[in-house]
Give the backbone structure.
Amino acid sequence: MYLATHIWGGQPGRGPEIATLKHCDIEQLPKNIFVFDGQVVIITDRDKSKGLSGGTGGRKVARFLPEHLSRMMVAYIAWLLLFEKVLHRLAGIRGPSDLLDPWIWKSAEKGIWDTAILSKQLALISGVEIGAWLTVLSYRHVAVEMGRKIKGLIIRQMDLEAAEADSDNEVADPITGERRRQPRVEYVWDSQATHGSRIARGYYGVNLQFPN
């Protein structure tokens, strides 16, 4: 489920974003898992500092899981996590600390899972299926390029937050010559990766022969 959620939840985010998902609220930190119109939706912070500092403000990223994976996520939270605790108690095996109950991905040995575990699982699957051992970082580059090549994979949106626009987004009116702010076009695909489309074009999936 850990890897499947990372792959099928849209443009993959950074490892800590998926690793620290919670299915219930704790003090100062809301849960990330919701059900909306029959689908599981994962809500995380788009601003990197918010998720690390525990802030609840700022822009959010929404990731809708496909129907089959939504059903698996509900079953995982409602049944498997509780069943795991029962098995640990009956077998006398040490399980994850009760303090970690709100988090989805955890174990007694590792505590809350990290990016290294996700990269290991991703490398194993990608190595078997496509012969390339991808990590979380390298897969982010691959996913950005797939969004460029596969028609209909990405969705365009208009970012109307004029306060964030800078002078580079100003253009001259062809008739009056007046300087006007140009609406900044962003892609949901890029926003899910917690960066803008300008960063995606300049740093992700860059052709080494023709970087521009």
Remarks:
- Residues 158-167, 208-212 have pLDDT under 50 and may be disordered.
- Residues 6 and 88 are 27 Å apart (CA to CA).
